[in-house]
Amino acid sequence: MKTKELKQAISILKAGACHRVIQPILANVALNGKMITTDLDCWTIVDMPTGINTTASIFQLDKLLKNVKSDEVTFSQDGHHLKVVAGSLKTTLNGLPVEEYPAIPALDVKHALTLDGKRFLSAIKKLAYSTAHRESQNVLAGICLKVNQTGLEMASTDGSRLGKYTDPSITSDEPFETVIPGQYLAAFHKSMQGCKDETIRLEIAPEMASLRMGKVHFIIRTLDGQYPLYNQLIPNPSDTKHRVTFEKADLEKAINQIKPFANPRTNVIRFEFGQGTLTLKTSTPDIGESEIALPYRASCQDGPLATAFNYAYILDALKVIESDTVQLSMSEPLHPAILIGEDDPHYLALIMPVQVK
Prior knowledge:
- By secondary structure, the chain is of the alpha+beta class.
- The chain has three domains: about 5-100, DNA Polymerase III, subunit A, domain 2 (DNA Polymerase III, Chain A, domain 2), CATH 3.10.150.10; about 110-230, DNA Polymerase III, Chain A, domain 2 (Roll), CATH 3.10.150; about 235-350, DNA Polymerase III, subunit A, domain 2 (DNA Polymerase III, Chain A, domain 2, Roll), CATH 3.10.150.
- About 20% of the residues lie in helices and about 40% in strands.
- It is built from six helices and 25 strands.
- It has a nine-stranded antiparallel beta sheet with strand order 8-4-1-2-3-16-15-14-9. It has a nine-stranded antiparallel beta sheet with strand order 13-10-11-12-25-24-23-17-21. A four-stranded antiparallel beta sheet has the order 20-19-18-22.
- A hairpin with a 2-residue loop joins strand 5 (about 75-80) and strand 6 (about 80-85).
């Protein structure tokens, strides 16, 4: 096998491996015509035949390959043990019978879609950051995916912020909805960086979702539970009293300049909208204070407005908005704020302000 291709495969498979080992075999990669890792909630599969049938530690194999400089690597086996030869390096990794490895689930596919790979991966990037990362089995740890006759809609929220992505070009005559864990969609997104395939095959089965792009295949156990009615939380654009537009780079730069003076426990920055100028302010008794002003363009403004945000939430949203200019809209100091890129209309970020005294 080519060393470069094998290293890429191991990097992908390591992301899907079980780090909290319940059973010793779950720390292994299965080698039996395909390369497979699983933590029992996600199966990561790479189509790379190895010619052997055993399992070995994915983490030890990763460490081994990082120091390999030869162009090719050869696998063989001695019983259940994996023998690796790379140039003059010869290594044997202890293995376990491949028959003991958890089987890839058989899917009773109910819905299937062929998606534009670039757009779908972009949607995952925009939404994965705003899931509830610490609650792995909570429905808020997932990205909600809906498809009907009017298009595809995806959303994520951790209770303090919300992201929504729409694609009217993806439709289905049979509507369906599922919630896929954000951590595995993020791992799929990371795995596909540099992939030249243009499409992703999405299949939905009871309690499972399947994503396939090129040689990489993820089978993910979906999350059970009622996802929040997030559309009810998004203000009607016609009701907003303040709608202003920034150069994204200027807003990011301003926040980064004064964030060292924000309280490290709360990350709060005050936003004071005057006539054509936003003043950002921070003040922490044992650190100091700072402020910076930057201009904006207003398309709707009902007098001055003063509010506050967790600056990390603002920066996270700005990082994934694919536009040089960003519009912020809100009605009252404690009402949700909406961020939309002028050149990225299919994605919006909702951020709840912080009440400060």
